[in-house]
């Protein structure tokens, strides 16, 4: 939706439309647009989406910022990733573990210091889930 607004409306009008009281986030549409921006290497459009959806009701802020971080990883842009981390903190976004691991990976791969403790993946949980899925599959096969 904001992609269309962004193309046909002045920026301030698009922001006002998206931030209309009562308007709710549509996760599927946000994901579609975020993925489209990543595939087409459109950092500016991603940043505008994150900024414009800041006050959108039920908008997953961690998810919005993770799109920027994913593109940062693909383009190897650790400075943008670090700036994104700062914006997340300013907005009081509580990042998921996957977001922290992604950011840490970007920073480490560029020889930068990771400014937080990196959560480890619990392999035991994955093994248990894999076993459960296999059992369920066997029950219904």
UniProtKB/TrEMBL annotation:
InterPro entries (UniProt xref): LRP130, TPR-like_helical_dom_sf
Annotated protein name in UniProt: Uncharacterized protein
Species of origin: Ilyodon furcidens (goldbreast splitfin)
């Amino acid at each position: 939706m904001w992609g269309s607004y962004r193309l046909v409306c002045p920026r301030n009008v698009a922001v006002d439309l998206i931030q209309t009281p009562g308007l709710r986030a549509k996760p599927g549409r946000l994901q579609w647009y975020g993925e489209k921006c990543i595939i087409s290497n459109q950092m500016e459009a991603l940043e505008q989406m994150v900024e414009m959806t800041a006050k959108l009701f039920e908008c997953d802020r961690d998810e919005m910022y993770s799109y920027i971080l994913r593109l940062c990883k693909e383009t190897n842009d650790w400075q943008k990733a670090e700036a994104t981390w700062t914006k997340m903190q300013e907005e009081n976004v509580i990042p998921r573990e996957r977001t922290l691991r992604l950011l840490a990976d970007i920073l480490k791969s560029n020889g930068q210091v990771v400014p937080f403790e990196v959560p480890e993946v619990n392999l035991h949980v994955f093994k248990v889930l894999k076993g459960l899925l296999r059992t369920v599959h066997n029950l219904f096969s």
